[in-house]
Amino acid sequence: MRHGFLNIDKPTACTSHDVVNIVRRLLGQRRVGHAGTLDPLATGVLVLGVGHGTRLIEYLAATRKTYRAGVLLGRTTTTDDSAGDPVQDRPVNVDSSTVRSALEKFMGTTAQVPPAFAAVHVQGTRAYVRARRGENVTLEPRQVTIHRLEILEMQLPRLTLEVECSTGTYIRALARDLGEALGCGAHLEALTRTRVGAFSLEDAAPVQELEQRIVDQGWQETLLPLDLPLRHWPARHLSVAETTQVMNGMRVVADSAVSPGQCARAYDPEGRLIAVLEAAATTPPLWQPVKVFRYNP
């Protein structure tokens, strides 16, 4: 069993699950999962957890994501992106200052309604499945946060935006809502995810080259370290005795001041990541193992 992460540059017209299946085939193991779906139209960073990495994917949910988005003003579509059918064309009677002013209203934490063609569940069925059946899909607004929203290029009716946002933000919905705010409608024409936490597009491996990289470099060089997404946490290096305690679910003393709920990464004397620790509300402060990783000999 191999453990770690892969940073894949997903091509267009390929689903996130397609990429997972490719990696499962190359690895010969089933424990592979992705940390956040990219639409088939979208390209860019798709982070895959392998082996124990699948159990750490949840910690990537709190990390910010960055996108480069192409928006076309003046046309709405069924899916809020260029994969859908046109719904309405409207004149674009706006200028650059109007666009900049409208974008400012999307900064910070706001309520966003996901697109009807979204992967979220509605009464046990994906919203996009219901939408494809012709059903009227109504989704509840969600709280999302846009930390940064910049115009990279503006040649109206087209815009290229850079968006840094929280997990759960739909860039298609942002394009749709921007169009409505401007009174002309809009849809997402192109999308590239350029960063997920510590994983950047510059370091991503094109999925078409992955097999050759494995042949040339081997899996050890191709897989990214298991602890990579956790390196902003403090590290706790355990003794042999402490390693046994943690592997059996027992607490160990914190070697510095910690706040209840704070997380840390724990390493055995061989330098392997063996646990995720969480600070317990105790005096003296103790680390409680919340995830333990076992390795086959």
SSE map:
Blueprint: E1 4-10, H1 16-27, E2 32-34, E3 43-50, E4 65-73, E5 75-77, E6 86-89, H2 96-104, E7 108-112, E8 121-122, E9 125-126, H3 127-132, E10 142-155, E11 158-165, H4 171-182, E12 186-196, E13 199-200, E14 205-206, H5 210-217, H6 219-222, E15 235-237, H7 240-247, E16 252-253, E17 263-267, E18 273-280, E19 286-292
Parallel strand pairs: 1-14, 3-12, 15-17
Antiparallel strand pairs: 1-3, 2-3, 4-11, 4-12, 5-6, 7-10, 8-9, 10-11, 12-13, 16-19, 17-18, 18-19
Strand content: 35-45%
Continuous helix count: 7
Could you estimate the helical fraction of the residues in percent? 10-25%
Alpha-beta classification:
alpha+beta
Globally, the shape reads: globular
Most strands sheet: 10 strands, mixed
Number of strands: 19
Distance between the termini: 11 Å
